[in-house]
Amino acid sequence: DAEPRYLVSVRPARVSNNKKSCSGRTKTQKPLQLVVGTLTPTSVFLSWGILVNPQHDWTATNNCASDRFYTVRYREKGKDKKWVFQLCPVTETVIDNLKPNTHYEFGVKDNVEDSIWSKTFNHKTVLSSKYLT
């Protein structure tokens, strides 16, 4: 019994979150600018972002876009058609399983409080792959 005995008490350490937290927001929400491009007769590529005017909106690029999620919506053109919604963690996506030679409406918004939808972007899918180069 000549060996010393110790009682060790362990408390959980604070978790250090090295991930950048997003605190900066613009005072007024601006709609995102959406671009739609044709990939195939049944798919399109969507990309979006904030249109920045460097003379006035120089802080707009510091709004932690990489920490956000976005909601994309699309439907066949027509008021009686239902929107299909898709959640995206990045500022681009591919929408597939569309009908060839069909008019569609697309929109996107940031998933932050009081965000607004982008202007609706109208796009017609191509008839066949012979038009793609």
Automatic annotation (TrEMBL):
GO BP: extracellular matrix organization; positive regulation of cell-substrate adhesion
Record-annotated membrane-spanning stretches: none
Q: What residue stretches are annotated with the Fibronectin type-III domain?
A: 30-128
| UniProt organism field | Sakesphorus luctuosus
What gene makes this protein? Abi3bp
Fetch the PROSITE patterns from UniProt: FN3
Q: What is this protein called?
A: TARSH protein
**Record SUPFAM superfamilies:** Fibronectin type III (SSF49265)
